[in-house]
Amino acid sequence: MHIPVLYQEVIDYLKPSAGSRYIDATVGAGGHSLGLLSASAPDGIVLALDRDPMAIEFARRRLQEFKDRVILVNASYEQMAMVASRNGMSGVDGVLMDLGLSSGQLADNDRGFSFQEDGPLDMRFDTSRGSTAADLINAMPEDGIADILRRYGDVRDSRRYARAIVRERPIDSTLQLAELVMKESRVRGKIHPATRVFQALRIAVNDELETLKEGLVAALDVLKIGGRLAVISFHSLEDRIVKHFIREQSRDCVCPPEYPVCMCDARPIVRAVHRKVIRPSEAEVQNNPRSRSARMRVAEKIAEVVV
Ligand SMILES: C[S@@+](CC[C@H](N)C(=O)[O-])C[C@H]1O[C@@H](n2cnc3c(N)ncnc32)[C@H](O)[C@@H]1O
């Protein structure tokens, strides 16, 4: 079972209470939603989304005791505003985005996220559409593969791996790719060299960084004034996007510094709720090692976006 990361911090910062309404944009195994629903009893409502239809089915079973206080929708979070409006859930008190993948997805060999056991090289969150990781690396030119490995995984030997992939393809299974990377790797460390390669491919397959940017904009759109957005990320590329987004939306003037007076009339849309990024306690990391790379940022909406 996936253990929700920064669980207490999410509750403390989103402050669920009776009658309030939330969007859990990444319901996963439903751990955070369960907390939001329990703390907003007897009538708080959670609209829970996930891009993975299997996660939605799992969460539906887990959260069934909350009956019509929970609305589950299989959708990607960049569609949040549309899904919220269709479900009468615009102007919500809080939005949670807990990025990445769940322990259940990682442990399921058929999903292709892990190279611990053999499985199809899939890596799609939504298994009903789009290209798999195998489709991608079996069709792309060498340069494109190297670019993905470098940009999304900061892989040092990206060109070397890309060349080997092109030479050895078709590559259809997780172990086939992991073994190829291991054979080509020139560094021996504690972390398997395929870890970053798998991370990079997963980000590319799901277009995770662009989707995150659109998801953040959608989240601001659905919040009421005073509502809060909490985002938990697990690697620096995601955290950087969240940090920049909050910083940009908190600025009051976006004129170039050489302008003598403000010409833009921009106003801050959010305020950062804390100064430093929120990280799990030592006790949490001990109890759940997967939480060690988690970073949470929270912003409060203070004005409507003017378009
Ligand atoms: C870390 S898990 C969430 C765990 C959850 N908070 C819990 O307590 O069980 C991340 C979830 O986000 C989902 N996900 C990834 N990208 C998504 C997207 N663009 N839109 C919606 N859900 C997404 C994944 O399918 C996965 O179930």
Blueprint of the fold:
Elements: H1 7-14, E1 21-24, H2 31-39, E2 45-50, H3 53-62, E3 70-74, H4 80-86, E4 92-98, H5 103-107, H6 133-139, H7 142-153, H8 158-168, H9 174-184, H10 194-205, H11 208-222, E5 223-233, H12 236-250, E6 270-272, H13 282-287, E7 295-301
Parallel strand pairs: 1-2, 1-4, 2-3, 4-5
Antiparallel strand pairs: 5-7, 6-7
Helix pairs in contact: 4-11, 7-8, 7-10, 8-9, 11-12
Query: What is the percent of helical residues?
Result: 40-55%
CATH homologous superfamily classification of the largest domain: Vaccinia Virus protein VP39
CATH class of the largest domain: Alpha Beta
> Low-confidence parts, pLDDT < 50 over ≥5 residues?
none
- What small molecules are bound in this structure? S-adenosylmethionine
Question: What distance separates the N and C termini?
Answer: 43 Å
Class from secondary-structure proportions: alpha/beta
Named CATH architecture of the largest domain? 3-Layer(aba) Sandwich
**Cα-based radius of gyration, to the nearest Å:** 21 Å
Strand order in the largest sheet? 3-2-1-4-5-7-6
- Gross morphology: globular
Structural domain tally: 2
Relative strand content: 5-15%
Fill in the CATH topology of the largest domain.
Rossmann fold
Summarize the biggest pleated sheet: 7 strands, mixed
**Helical run tally:** 13
Provide the residue-averaged pLDDT: 95
Based on DSSP secondary structure assignment, what is the total number of beta strands?
7
- Spell the H/E element sequence: HEHEHEHEHHHHHHHEHEHE
